[in-house]
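Let's do one together. I've listed all components of the complex below, 1068 residues spread over two lines.
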Amino acid sequence: MRDRVSITELTPLLFLERSADVFGDKPAIRYKDGSITYAEMKAHVNRLGRALQAAGVRPGDRVAYLMPNLPEMLIGHFGVPLVHAILVAINTRLSGTEIAYILDHSGASILFVDSALFPTVEPHLGDRPNLERVIVVPDPHSGAPEVAGHTPYEEFLAAGTDEPLPFRVDDEERIISINYTSGTTGRPKGVMYTHRGAHLNALAELLHSRHTPDSVYLWTLPMFHCNGWCTTWGLPAIGGTSVCLRAVDPGEIWRLIGSEGVTHLNAAPTVLISMVNDSGAAPFGRDFVVTTAGAPPSPTIIAQMAELGAETVHVYGLTETYGPYTVCEVRTEWSDKPDPERFGLIARQGVAYIGADPIRVVDQQMNDVPRDGATMGEVVMKGNNVMAGYYDDADATERAFSGGWFHSGDLGVWHPDGYIELRDRAKDIIISGGENISTIEVEQAVVSHPDVLEAAVVSMPHEKWGERPKAFVTVKSGSTVTPDDIVEHVRDLLARFKVPDTVEIVPELPKTSTGKIQKYVLRERLWSGDRRIN
Amino acid sequence: MRDRVSITELTPLLFLERSADVFGDKPAIRYKDGSITYAEMKAHVNRLGRALQAAGVRPGDRVAYLMPNLPEMLIGHFGVPLVHAILVAINTRLSGTEIAYILDHSGASILFVDSALFPTVEPHLGDRPNLERVIVVPDPHSGAPEVAGHTPYEEFLAAGTDEPLPFRVDDEERIISINYTSGTTGRPKGVMYTHRGAHLNALAELLHSRHTPDSVYLWTLPMFHCNGWCTTWGLPAIGGTSVCLRAVDPGEIWRLIGSEGVTHLNAAPTVLISMVNDSGAAPFGRDFVVTTAGAPPSPTIIAQMAELGAETVHVYGLTETYGPYTVCEVRTEWSDKPDPERFGLIARQGVAYIGADPIRVVDQQMNDVPRDGATMGEVVMKGNNVMAGYYDDADATERAFSGGWFHSGDLGVWHPDGYIELRDRAKDIIISGGENISTIEVEQAVVSHPDVLEAAVVSMPHEKWGERPKAFVTVKSGSTVTPDDIVEHVRDLLARFKVPDTVEIVPELPKTSTGKIQKYVLRERLWSGDRRIN
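Okay, and this is what the predicted structure of the assembly comes out as:
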């Protein structure tokens, strides 16, 4: 620790300390009919820290949380780092086996679990070598029965004290959290965030989503997902109010937007699509910012959000980059362009965040690809918005950091204006007769059909061309559109070789818990029996 | 240098690199009928860096600037740090002798000087031991004649090249600038800023003044003053446009607000007062933020600014704290309070900036004073928004940092809501019959008289009480108000012992270049012949 007048180690802990001072009597977190102030939040965080110490948690220990977006989950984002322990927030959609793997790999000694999620992990609690305590957090609104045989949250807290802990860290490069990748193939990897990185990314989020102390933020984005893109730390920094949400439900989202005076939310495009198609959809009636990532938002959804009065901030990143790394900064002069062109510009992933190193698109020799909007390369990043590495996995870290840059695995192009645009995940790209086909480009063409809700384009095996694109689509209720209509529509927009051979209308698309479409599930259907490795 | 994928040393250089990428063709700086884009700004900065290298400037060398708020001055804020040299931006109102002292103490090897300011320093250029080169920067709008015998700016640049320099620093704790205090007594001291501190403070300024990429910022605040509160680095970070201004003139300010679409400015309250009393004053007609410091803004000026449609952000700090350290965060619930109370709340100095350590008010044993809004103590600060120390003055640094905190020399009270309020500079406080009288409190009462423009209250010698307050005031043109009227007005507002014995109406008050009233000048008039040490 640099004990100097002019250096304080960067940490999100500073943020809550400040807001408890400045906004002590202001609502920090609201959930259903409950509300706690910033002073109460800080006191709760302090008590949790003392209770963790009483339970034997030492600096560097891992503490796991398996919870929806509830107040206790946000409290955990400060209480665990307060005692210099490491927060492991686990994806609530995982199976018991997957959760058990993460508990073992992280070596978490304590697990906090929502009572409604408890049955998922219960069968796996018997033989976890490191796990010492399971703390059950009740939520009367979940309808879940009481859990016996484990420590209730209140009892755990009761073992703590109110003796103040310093909201400081001894080294800003200390690990604050480990977030496990959802890894569609292979074992999930534990992405390590530092106090410094979390502090800096949180500030950048505030600037790019234009937060103010008047922000009322609705928790549609899971807190377990990149720690809610560091907004778990950012919102308490600016002194806004968090509105908790147990499950993403468009009707409930609209109800809360109205009753709570919500001004901001972060969500994947699929959540936005479900919102605009909900019967409760209505103009926001106040300045409203929707920050979206997880997949490129279609021009259609950007336009629909604009019609309701929301500004869409399009960002892009990965678990390995603290969530967002780029933002599509909207240039004033774009407003003069016709809608389709303008929305196309906004749908690009854009440029590096303030404070982040410039993003690059490189070829296999790590040379920049030309800024021609056509040459594809891999997107690589570097600097304070990049993880410290994978926990207990030096080999994977070395591979990911080869050449001194973090390799995203995403393929994109670089436009003459410096903005990047993703074309595909490296594993999603379709190679047809030697030509690359960007599945994202084909999807954008498909969803521009007015009757289409969502689309996923994947490769299917083809005897002559090796691979050919196939589109899975969902359509608006009551629509009578046919696959041929959609192919016809796309034919006007894309080069001949990019037009899908087949369009299949399906009732729904497989998705991850954060709303990403799982293309690998669709691909497996088409390739089962084939030897393609992905 | 920590050469790792996940660490980039913090530096404002990153900001310009990003904006040149993102906003390459957008106006970065406008002055009169000229304009340069962010790409051009970066190219100019790079060339300046190369020219400095060609002139023999090495990392750690000091490079001085004596210039008004012109484009070349903003360029210097990046070009000098680009080669890891240290910027010494000198107050343009100083005398030639004072400037010579700063040149000698900093050991600057190069001086960039505006052609109109050249005559001030010319007599002192002969015998400066460290100064090797003087570069004269012409400004056709200044009306100053050409200067012979020294290198013109263009010729200096011509010795550089366009070979790209990395916009990085090898150590974020490297010194980026030295800002000399205006020190009303004693020699000016050189306050050292680091790249890290400048980076973090610049981001905090953006958040608290609510800047966006659409910001058009008018340079009413001198860039030599705490590097324009780090806005020299912050505005290029967010990608806003800087509008330069050679001299503060209210008519010109209003003209530029109209013609350039200005959205933000920073200025001392005296500048705001001159603005609202100018014949060109008019409603802003767009979202407008005025950030003010240098003296507590009176409720009157806050109200007048609000009437014109501007939000006033009140901040407070010192040269030693990178400019602002606190902001008076305006609480929503204040809007329900009657105007005088509300404006009184806003006129307090407030709470620490986002990312800064909490501010304290302490007694002489460094214990917190009670948060009672009454007990006076010294304001102390600590952390990333505090200078690295005084250049080449270990003794002064040690004194200023005694007890592990930076001692501001400002006296204030701590309110129950955690907000601090200045009562005085330690040297300005009036001690009358053993009672402390806050000159600021008396001034606020005096300026609440509708005919009063500005007031300065200082101590005058008194046989019985030791000291008594005296007010110097300026009044609105055409006013027939008398000193007795003002005393009568104040009598209703203050305790009897705080009411000034004398009010003197004067044509103008002595001020520093940044608009601070020089109370010591007034005091000297009253105390000449006395032995008081201040």
